[in-house]
Amino acid sequence: MEIGIDASRAFGPRPTGIGVYATQVISRLLLSPPAPMRLYVNRRRPPELAPGLPPASEWSCIPLPRGWTAARLRWELRRRPPRLLWIPAYKLPGGRLPRSVVTIHGVEHRLAPSAYPQDEAEAVESFVLDSLRRAARVISPSETTKADLVHLFGADPDLVTVIPHGISAELRALPAEERAPLLRELGVEPSYLLVAGAHHQRKNVPFLLTQFARAFPPEGAGPHLVVTNAGEGARGLLAQAATLGVGGRLTILDHVAGTKLAALYSGAVAVCVPSLYEGFGLPALEAMACGAPVIGNGIGGVQEVAEGAALLLAPDDPDGWVEGLRRLAEDGELRQHLRRLGMQRASRFSWDSSAAAHAQLLLGELHLARV
């Protein structure tokens, strides 16, 4: 087989972040394959959400509850090695590998260490170091992450290729008549601020909640705050909101995707990205594509993706967040200005372009693997 792809993070029912990336790129590679491909998945049968296979390509269904990359995928690669291997998410299998390409999405564990437990930070650090040592080519979603790899890890800049993420087709600005019934299904009513993809400590949502309560005190009027994907942090956020006196204005939703996510973005007064650091900043890009004003910390990938088209603040500036949230809630002209700039900027990104660049890179690496 020519190209082996770790598709274990793709085609899941609740994709965020890396799952979205893997699904969008692999789907397009299946529709227009650069070469025959073998897709490895940690399941008993091919994913139902995946497109049909092109000729000469195949699924390799190799389930294992624990240690899939370290044991099961490693064994399969040793048994039937492809000419070229692409890993879309950091971690290469151990042992001898074919020529390999790996995507490193960010090194936030180095730049926002307070958000990472020691064991998690050590694991990510080991994945990154190993990938930089053994991969023939590294894909980065942003110039930010490439620069971080070069400056913090001594990576060879000539071996890191930047291929930006794109925007899912469903994520577009929805008019009021289309989004209203979807928002009702979610139990969300205007007006509201939105935090999407809040599933990790580095998303810094407790900080935002504190500034939200300062900007819109309990005794006054103001928007609600809607948080998606809070996961295990939901209980803590609800308790914090109650302590701050804004428990009645906090709405926590489970995973939201597709047109419902587009409706949430489209109807928001603003989308908040208070992350301590991001390697890319996909929620900011998705929000801009849906016509939502964005307010965020102007660092890392968020700054790269949204600079000039969002209200970006100095990191760790609570007073700036209070003022920014109030401005966006009160100033319709500012919101409209940011909507226009954000949609213009987001139009430069697409998953079609991203997948085409991946295909070109994989073909080039495949040629080198044949030599």
Provide a brief overview of the structure:
With 371 residues, this protein is of the alpha/beta class. The chain contains 14 helices and 13 strands.
Describe the structure in your own words.
This protein has 14 helices and 13 strands. It is of the alpha/beta class. Helix 7 (205-215) packs parallel to helix 8 (234-244), helix 7 (205-215) packs across helix 12 and helix 10 packs across helix 13. The longest helix is centred in the last third of the chain and has 20 residues, at 351-370. Helix 5 links the parallel strand 6 and strand 7 (160-162). It folds into 2 domains: 3-166 and 351-370, Rossmann fold (3-Layer(aba) Sandwich), CATH 3.40.50; 176-346, Rossmann fold. The model has no long low-confidence stretch (mean pLDDT 94).
Indicate the topology:
Blueprint: E1 3-6, H1 18-31, E2 37-41, E3 58-61, H2 68-79, E4 84-87, E5 99-103, H3 108-111, H4 118-134, E6 137-140, H5 143-153, E7 160-162, H6 176-186, E8 192-195, H7 205-215, E9 224-228, H8 234-244, E10 250-253, H9 258-267, E11 270-273, H10 282-289, E12 294-297, H11 300-306, E13 311-313, H12 318-330, H13 332-346, H14 351-370
Parallel strand pairs: 1-2, 1-4, 2-3, 4-5, 5-6, 6-7, 8-9, 8-11, 9-10, 11-12, 12-13
Helix pairs in contact: 1-14, 6-9, 7-8, 7-12, 10-13
